[in-house]
Amino acid sequence: MTGYGLFKVVDKAKVKEVDSIMDHFLTAESAQSVVKLKAFSKFADTAAALNAAAAICEGTLDENLKNFLQESVVAKVRTAQHHSSST
Q1: Residue 68 near residue 4 (C-beta atoms within 8 A)
Q2: Which of 5, 16, 47, 49 registers the highest number of CB atoms within 10 A of its CB?
Q3: Dihedral pair phi/psi, residue 17, rounded to 5°
Q4: DSSP of the chain
Q5: Is the pTM of this model over 0.85?
Q6: Nearest 10 degrees: Cα torsion 38, 75, 78, 5
Q7: pLDDT at 78
């Protein structure tokens, strides 16, 4: 399955070690000690995956990634801000 993944860093000390960061991602188990998957958006098909890869290589934000980030990050931040301001 391919798609966009959004991860939260759970061990900031490990990602600060730039020279050895890859050591923490050699296995799924070691990666889980560094990051946790928070959201995932599956590509509709191979063409969508290729378009996404091309957009990233070109440094552009394709519509699917924009929507994923809007739903996964921006909307949740706004909701959290709304809840904290109303208490």
Answers
A1: yes
A2: 49
A3: -85, 80
A4: --EEEEEEES-HHHHH-GGGGGGGGSSHHHHHTTEEEEEEEE-SSHHHHHHHHHHHHHT---HHHHHHHIIIIIHHHHHHHHHHH--
A5: no
A6: 30
A7: 76
Task: Give the C-alpha separation, 28 to 20, whole Å.
Answer: 16
What is the reported pLDDT for 74?
A: 83
pLDDT tens-place values along the chain, 87 residues long = 899 999 999 999 988 888 989 999 999 999 999 999 999 999 999 999 999 999 999 999 999 999 999 999 887 777 777 677 776
Alpha carbon distance 8, 12 (integer Å): 10
Amino acid at 22: M
List CB contacts of 11: < 8 A, sequence separation 6 or more. Answer: 33, 34
